[in-house]
Amino acid sequence: MIDFQYFRRLVLLAFILGALSAPAGDPDAAQLYYARVLQHRAAEKAIGRESSIAGGIVRNSLDEPVAGATVIVIRIRTVDGQTKFDELAKGATDDSGRFAIAAETRAEDAIGLEIHAPSFLMWRRWSGGTVEGESIVLNRVIDDAFFADVERAADPVLRLSLLLDLVGRRAFNSNDFDERIEQYYSHLGAVREDLLTIAQSKAFAVADDEYGVSPAERAKNLLIYWFDPNDEPLIQKWTKEDAFKHFRLDVAFTGSSPEEALRAYTDAHFAREPKTFYYFPDTVFSPDCKHAYVVFVVRYAHWGYWQPLVLLDEGGRWKIKLAGEGGRWHGLSPEGPGMVYRD
Prior knowledge:
Number of domains: 3
Shape: globular
Order of helices and strands: HHEEEEEEEEEHHHHHEHEEEEEE
Radius of gyration: 23 Å
Helix content: 25-40%
């Protein structure tokens, strides 16, 4: 259960801390953000009133209505071990973001709701039936269009508020499972100053989700991956924190190209364990080709793992600046597929 009295105190604390020492726009953006998070979390706990009509309102994370979103009443079934989603009824939100859809359902069915809108993550509720008065929040897809909107925002409060779709809490039921840093890594340099503002802000250091993670912590994570040379003293400090101890900065492999530096890394890596099948998905570069992000994938017969690596061009020599712990797979089949991590 969410303790909303406790969370309200966190909202007030975030505002007070930010107001004491923060750049222009920081405390205002934080106060607005935590107030919205409080409202969104309350709405997620009370999805609506049972009804034969599925109805409610769809907003973005700034509480602006999302018009023209496709709303689908779904039935969830399991067939041969696979989850199936049957479309029972479909409609769209009006200009105010509201929808009302009549659907014939049975009491024994698992009935949910699915929302699709351009530029937003798909939203899906797996159960709960059809209800009225449902309040749904959609988060932005983090892509070129998202960063273009951030860049166009001249007001500092609006700019930080938009960026919180990247480093803020994702709405419950947002389908962000396929999101990976390589999909937007090349844009991080353009928002580095904003990320620094959030990362060093006391106002944004208050946890905003059930895992105890804050926008400041997520911003630090992205800045570590970007690894601007000017931020190295901060990165050295941050990687001593519990949240970032999985990053290794003691890698110093270099080469005249990223490929040469990666070969040196893999040679040293497999000197410590049996050599097996491995590969690197496509490397992602910054617009000036000075920063690079790549994933190192190692595949054994029944298990495997992946590590994120960051390289910098230091005056014509590429150097691996950090290695992280990405994830592991267990219960793999020796028959494949071999390339378990894909772009």
